[in-house]
Amino acid sequence: RIQQLRGSYIGFIDPVTLIAQSKLTLNRHNNAYYQNYLVPLEKLPQRGIKASEHQLRKAFGWFREKLKRRVGAAEESGKEIASFLDQLVDKLVFTVISVTDELNAFKVFETLNARGVRLSSTDLLKNYLFSVIASSDSVHDTEMNSLEERWERIVDWLGSERFPEFLRIFWNSKNKLVRKSELFKTIRHSISTKEQAFKLLRELDTSASIYAALRDPQDSIWNDVEKDALKQLLMFSVKQPLAMLLACNEKFYESNRNAFTRILKAVVVVSFRYNVICNLQPQEQERLYNDIARRVSEGEYGNVESVLRSLKDIYPDDDRFKAAFSEKGFRTTNSRNKKIVRYIMFKIESQRSEQQFDFESASITLEHILPENPGAEWSHIDESKQDSLIFRLGNMTLLKRTANRDLGNSGYEQKKTFYKESGFQMTRAIAENYEEWDEDKVDSRQKQLANVAVGIWKVEFGD
Fold first, then answer.
1. Which residue, 125, 193, 295, 387, is most buried by CB atoms nearer than 10 A?
2. Torsion of CA 206, 208, 210, 211, to 10 degrees
């Protein structure tokens, strides 16, 4: 059965050389792995392989495990596998389209996409760039090989799923803002010659590594200040500044590293004010970031001051920020929200005590003064108001994990005695300033926190 199934669907092993002669040939980047390991059913290497080869290995393993579960390893398993394949093949239909050259192949590829076979912007762009280069009278095989190798390097670096997102951010870092749905059409109108296609590929190749680093705060190219800033942007789930940061990195990183660092720190503050606290519309923000990116790329903005001044348009002023902060709540049952609130509390505590803390420390926990599950001791607060008060910033503070565990859902009188002994200044201040805890006290404390926050998350624009 093995010989029959291999001969029908896979190919055969040459009896002299024992080299696989398969029915299927993959592209030049994956064919060697397919022919050397998958076809002869050799042990599959897991190290030193490309991302696409890793996907082939995973797919092979997935199907192998599924078949094992389906038919097992009993004496009748071979018959069951053969029967299963026989039924499967009866339901498969393949269409073969023969073309005379690569250019015609690219045209067929686009026609299929237009008629309902969904292809990603990654596939479409690769196809289009290949067709532009292949249509040139002076194209050489070496150029096509270079194009494919460069393309594979970019996709391996980013992964096929992240490439469309990177492509839009890259394009918007140098051109007018383009929405996702219009991206491929816009690029196609802009790239029409072999020289333009290769130029685009070179720029994509250079920018891909920077984009990947911007999404990885631990990348070795960043200093400690930059790592901290990028970590915060990831925590905020803010992507709108990426096009501008890509352009600013290209402009300033080598020539004026401090300028890039200042811009990155300012973006964190703007994002915190605009996105996290004030929760304003991101569309307008993205348009401004794109405009700054384009002006930086075109050389109109040649220094850090011009970039920072432009950010003022999306920088909520102190009054607006304080007003929003004074009312802000985060439902900390969500892990991202809990992380943001810890970050806020640690920043405020650092400002007050002039000490530095690791806000990810497992030994320190977030304390809800009015607990998440209030008991009878909290009946003086209207039950209809409890839910909204629990998650207000004014109702939260920091405690050592052991103290928080001992307190549980205790009433305020008992909590107050623990707060007085806390090593955190902001927590001790609660016990010192508030004899009881209710809605008014939450409002009062949150306004005080807002007054501190406005000095922490602040950009000095220099004008």
1. 125
2. 150
Res 248 pLDDT > 80:
yes
428: pLDDT strictly greater than 90: yes
Q: Count the neighbouring beta carbons within 10 Å of the beta carbon of residue 453.
A: 25
* Bridge partners for 315 per DSSP: none
Q: Enumerate the β-bridge partners of residue 400.
A: 364
What is residue 37's DSSP assignment? Answer: I
Has residue 270 got a pLDDT over 80?
yes
Asked if the model's pLDDT at residue 139 lies above 70, the reply is no
Report whether 245 contacts 264 (CB < 8 A).
Answer: yes
Q: What is the pLDDT of residue 114?
A: 60
Which CB contacts under 8 angstroms, 24+ apart, belong to 372-378? 372/332, 372/333, 372/409, 373/409, 374/409, 375/409, 375/411, 377/410, 377/411, 377/412, 377/413, 378/411, 378/412
Residue 202 parent element (H or E)? helix 194-214
How many whole angstroms separate alpha carbon 148 and alpha carbon 28?
9
Angle between helices 242-252 and 304-311 (to 10 degrees): 170
Residue 363 CB contacts under 8 Å (≥ 6 apart), including other chains: 400, 401
- Asked whether the beta carbons of 121 and 167 are under 8 A apart, the reply is yes
Contact at 8 Å (CB) between 139 and 133? Answer: yes
Average pLDDT over residues 220-234: 95
Q: How far apart are the C-alpha atoms of 261 and 224, rounded to whole Å?
A: 10
* Distance in angstroms (rounded) separating the CA atoms of residues 97 and 21: 23
pTM: 0.77
Q: Buried b vs exposed e over 180-209: b needs ≥16 C-beta within 10 Å?
A: eeebbeebeeebeebeebbebbeebeebbe
* pLDDT tens digit sequence for 165-220: 899 999 999 999 998 878 888 888 899 888 898 899 999 998 999 999 999 999 99
Chain-centroid distance, C-alpha 463: 35
Task: For the beta carbon of residue 373, count every other beta carbon within 10 angstroms.
Answer: 10
* Residue 233 pLDDT class (50, 70, 90 cuts): very high
Q: Residue with structure tokens 């870092």?
A: 173
Q: What share of the chain is helix, strand, coil (3-state, %, to 5)?
A: 65, 5, 30
Contacts of 180 (CB under 8 A, 6+ apart): 121, 164, 168
pLDDT category of residue 95 using cuts at 50, 70 and 90:
confident
Largest CA distance in the chain: 92
Dist CA 79 CA 77 (whole Å): 5
- Evaluate the CA torsion angle 186, 190, 191, 195 in order and state its sign: negative
* Residue 364 DSSP code: E
Query: Measured between alpha carbons, how far is 424 from 428 in angstroms, rounded to an integer?
Result: 6
